[in-house]
Amino acid sequence: MKNRFNKILLSGFLLSASHLNSFGQGDVAPAPSTAKVPEIFFQSELYMLIFLFLIMLIAIISLTRSLKKLSYGMLSPEKRQALELKNEKAFEEKMLAPSFWTRFDRAILTKAVTVEKEADVMLDHNYDGIRELDNNLPPWWVWGFYLTIIFAFVYLAHYHLFRTGPLQTEEYNIAMQEAADQAKARELKMKDFVSAETITALNTPEALGAGKGIYEKNCVACHGAELGGSVGPNLTDDFWIHGGGIKNMFKVITEGVPAKGMISWKSQLTPKQIQQVASFILTKKGSNPAGGKEPQGDKYVDESLSAQPTDSTKADSTIIAN
Ligand code: HEC
Asked: How far is the CA of 226 from the centre of ligand 1 (A)?
């Protein structure tokens, strides 16, 4: 009987194993054996199937065990004897031995005394017929309790003896410092952030120097060393094809005018660098270099410069005077 059962189990294993295999490959042709870990191990279904299979296995094993026990219990004494005569003496012993679950329960879960021995642990008192057993504490609970004691020593040593871990105030200060660092980094990033809407001309020597360097490296070939223009237009006059001023320039340099031979620079220069080179170009306004190209485009008037703030005190007094 036992042998047969094992055979059934084995064939079950084999069956499901071959099943899993075909499941993993599906209708996709198997990849050449270059991959180290087969694809199937990354599919959650595999693990679901294995889990399901294990549960079924456990169910089958416990079912057959209890069936065996039941049928043994139903045998008549003569038949039991016959079984023992068939050289299976250990059989009865095994059948009546406590099950795995009982042993597990006694060793780890409750350690409860057997019903027959309960009288030994009965306490003296009796409240209206309710009596108390002096059972052991559950082993798992006791172990947990010992663990907390060990943990307390580790904690004490880590935080208070060797001071290898930050205490609450320290932890708070570290977190605050981290937040401050992040805020600073964010601020720096925002300072470097330039867009066509927010851009302003720079006037620091460093920025203009950097702009000059960028111009000499990238733009001289088409706009001339003195910005007088050659392939590209003169950048020193008041006439602009795409509008003058830092904002228009930023747009043209960033996006380019590919159809007319002006490259888009956004893949080669950062917004900050474009701001620097555009600011440098602005400083050359009106420099009127020798051999400069004739003006192209429309005359550009910077509205932000022409719109001078009016003196509000004067305006008020005129109103009063009127
Ligand atoms: C391959 C040649 C070439 C290079 C390199 C080049 N440009 Fe230009 N650029 C042009 C041409 C051509 C135009 C005119 C586009 C048009 O007609 O619409 C132009 C136009 C411009 C304009 C607009 C001028 C206006 O009148 O509106 C600006 C600003 C400008 N370039 C800046 C730059 C800067 C800054 C660089 C370097 C980072 C640069 N260019 C590099 C060819 C070039």
From this structure: 14
